[in-house]
Amino acid sequence: MVPVPVIEVDLELGRIAEVVSGILGRRQQRKQDVLADLEDDLEAVGVIVSRMNRLYVDLLEEVQWNAIGSGSELENRDEFIQQIHHFLHEDVLVSRLIELRGRIQAASQSRRFRWRRSRDMVTGLRGLDQAISAYLGFLEAVQKNEIQRDSNEMPLWNLSTVLRLLEAEENPAELSLRELCEEAIRNRRIDLVHAIDDLQGQAVQHVRIRRL
Asked: Does residue 169 lie in a domain region?
């Protein structure tokens, strides 16, 4: 099997941050417009969540492809460890997502939108706020190497578990490297990614209607 080139996580995170900055920079080019700013905030949330989710999967899939045999051996081991650290220590996009969630939450509670014609928009914003909060909780757990559990108390292994195996050869999951990566991909809370995508899209439509 030909080894897959090691993904450059830091560069991709920088690209995502640049796209988000471009979206949020639009407000500097126009007069103050609360609804237009809110629409930009919603678009930025969608970019951060969707592309960080994609990067999480891409990184784990490349580890899978570079795994040797059925144990914990890995081509380009040190490089992959470094790239996983880049993802786990990322704070710019997470901080931005926290900031955006705060603005969405503030809009959902604003008296500016207390009238009935804003009901659907505000309801959607409040749902989105809750979904973002839950996704931030997932990212925090991954970054802090906290293993969440499902309703049956089964551990939900994640990227941090893969890093533990690569760095110290600790394998609490007792799985091969390929199997552990697969579990981490399946446990990435895709339900929240889809919920945020749906709620963000609906909220954008409601904002555009309110702008008419």
From this structure: yes
Q: What is the pTM of this model?
A: 0.91
- Give me the domain span that covers residue 31: 9-211
- pLDDT tens figures, 112-142: 888 888 899 999 999 999 999 999 999 999 9
Q: What are the backbone angles phi and psi of residue 149, rounded to the nearest 5°?
A: -130, 150
Q: Is 19 among the domain residues?
A: yes
Burial class of 150 by CB neighbour count within 10 A (0 to 12, 13 to 18, 19+)? exposed
The residues facing 155 across adjacent strands are 149
Calculate mean pLDDT across residues 194-203.
Answer: 96
Size of the chain in residues: 212
What percent of the chain stands above pLDDT 70? 96
Residue 3 has pLDDT above 80, yes or no: no
Beta bridge partners, 68, equal 73
Pick the closest to residue 200 from 121, 95, 112, 96 (CA basis): 121
3 occurs within a structural domain:
no
Per the structure, the count of domains in the chain is 1
DSSP 27-69: GGGS---HHHHHHHHHHHHHHHHHHHHHHHHHHHHHHHHHEET
